[in-house]
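Researcher: We plan to redesign the surface later, but first we want a full-length starting point. Tokens attached.
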């Protein structure tokens, strides 16, 4: 499957004009003004991929990637860490490949953007001028969306929903330390949020650990929504593998299970109906918004950033692109696969503008796999193309209930292969990282 996935990446890149690119004709813009400058904020699924493809597309361009962390700790596959199928280290990636390619990787936090002067400022006191700016800062947690929740409260009731490694570690250590017979609460957010199937895969992974090590325990899901991604197949998995452990409470016409208040001291949560639940481990996943820098740059309308679906150029600020979770990508889910796919379109648009590369029609793709049990993976996928200002889905597929074990095993194998492929693609690794280290 590794080859199939790499071919898919190749096809995608080829479709937007990258196949075989190494050096290129240097565009008139860059010749006139010295090396044109591309500044990218955020070295994750979107930003790192843009840096890779812009630099590879035209090595003469001056490409700067601003990212505060020396290593990227992926949110994707972090549920598998909770389930004991991955180490935390296997989620961690450095920027050596991008540096080797010639990208200037700056370890700093972008604190502001002067879009009139076309300058990015950093907490470290530096300034970076740009011809094109790319913002892929991911999400910020809206701590104030739940009364009593805060950065401090998250050190007791972790969200574990960002690239913050400490949050993942904290949730895992709380689960490991919990007594048999304990209660875990998982509180997913309302739409829209990062990785729609993420909380429900997490339920499976935590439940798997409980089943193996603490079978008298319970996992309660308190959800403000009436429905969720891949619901029939997740519900089938809860029934098949985790019966008696997992209890899913979805909001109905009668009850609203959205968590509105938490008390970190007692580890109690209150739902909209006023009912209280007490957990030994409480995983609160609050509402989210585009990373702060996109909002400061003036790219947001409300919590998220509207973009032109042909290019992911900001609809609000000239010469700025917003992609990944921070963007409003209409029907395209907020996923690493989506961000990586969008990044190639952004890179192509920049290369057209700054290096006279031919422009190809934008095409996007997303696939989200979720692991529900050992060797059992489910998936949802679709292609997207710009149409009437939206991203129009086609060729959709979603896993069904009652599928053969072989199909599910194959899905899981695909997902492992995809993880290696996408991280190699994001960070310009010459060879993919070793395959997933499955524990035990
Ligand atoms: C539990 C979970 C499971 C998931 N599973 C999957 C999956 O199976 N498949 C999938 O495709 N997706 C999955 N996702 C979603 C995926 O992780 C995100 O959609 C993806 O990472 C978004 O890419 P991004 O570039 O927008 O943000 P990120 O990848 O989060 O990158 C943002 C980067 O920007 C940096 N940054 C932020 N602000 C600044 C600033 N001001 N200055 C400099 N740098 C800054 C951050 O440090 C970070 O490195 C999952 C997410 C979670 C939480």
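Model: Full-length starting sequence:
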């Amino acid at each position: 499957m590794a080859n199939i996935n790499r071919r898919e990446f190749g096809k995608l890149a080829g479709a937007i004009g990258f196949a075989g690119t190494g050096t290129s004709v240097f565009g008139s813009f860059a010749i006139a003004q010295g090396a044109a400058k591309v500044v990218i904020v955020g070295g994750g699924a979107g930003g790192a991929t843009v840096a890779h493809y812009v630099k590879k597309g035209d090595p003469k361009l001056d490409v700067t990637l601003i990212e505060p962390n020396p290593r990227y700790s992926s949110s994707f596959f972090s549920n598998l860490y909770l389930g004991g199928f991955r180490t935390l280290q296997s989620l961690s990636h450095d920027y050596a490949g991008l540096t080797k390619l010639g990208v200037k990787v700056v370890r700093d936090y972008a604190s502001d953007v002067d879009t009139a002067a076309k300058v990015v400022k950093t907490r470290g006191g530096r300034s970076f001028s740009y011809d094109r700016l790319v913002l892929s800062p991911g999400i910020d947690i809206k701590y104030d969306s739940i009364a009593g929740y805060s950065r401090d409260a998250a050190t007791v009731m972790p969200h574990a929903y960002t690239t913050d490694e400490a949050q993942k570690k904290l949730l895992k250590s709380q689960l490991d330390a919990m007594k048999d017979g304990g209660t875990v609460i998982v509180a997913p957010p309302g739409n829209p949020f990062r990785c729609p199937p993420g909380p429900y895969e997490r339920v499976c992974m935590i439940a798997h650990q409980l089943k193996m090590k603490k079978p008298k325990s319970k996992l309660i899901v308190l959800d403000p929504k009436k429905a969720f991604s891949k619901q029939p197949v997740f519900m089938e998995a809860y029934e098949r593998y985790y019966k008696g452990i997992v209890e899913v409470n979805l909001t109905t016409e009668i009850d609203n299970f959205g968590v509105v208040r938490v008390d970190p001291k007692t580890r109690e949560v209150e739902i909209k109906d006023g009912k209280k639940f007490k957990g030994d481990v409480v995983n609160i996943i609050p509402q989210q918004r585009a990373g702060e820098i996109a909002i400061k740059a003036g790219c947001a309308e409300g919590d998220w950033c509207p973009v032109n679906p042909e290019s992911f150029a900001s609809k609000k600020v000239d010469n700025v692109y917003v992609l990944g979770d921070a963007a409003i990508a209409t029907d395209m889910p907020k996923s690493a696969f989506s961000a990586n796919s969008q990044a190639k379109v952004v890179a192509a648009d920049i290369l057209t503008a700054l290096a006279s590369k031919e422009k190809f029609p934008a095409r996007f793709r997303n696939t989200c796999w979720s692991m529900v049990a050992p060797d059992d993976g489910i998936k949802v996928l679709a292609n997207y193309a710009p149409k009437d200002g939206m991203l129009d889905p086609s060729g959709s597929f979603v896993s069904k209930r009652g599928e053969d074990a072989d199909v599910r095993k194959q899905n899981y194998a695909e997902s492992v292969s995809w993880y290696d492929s996408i991280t190699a693609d994001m960070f310009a690794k010459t060879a993919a990282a070793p395959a997933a280290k499955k524990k035990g």
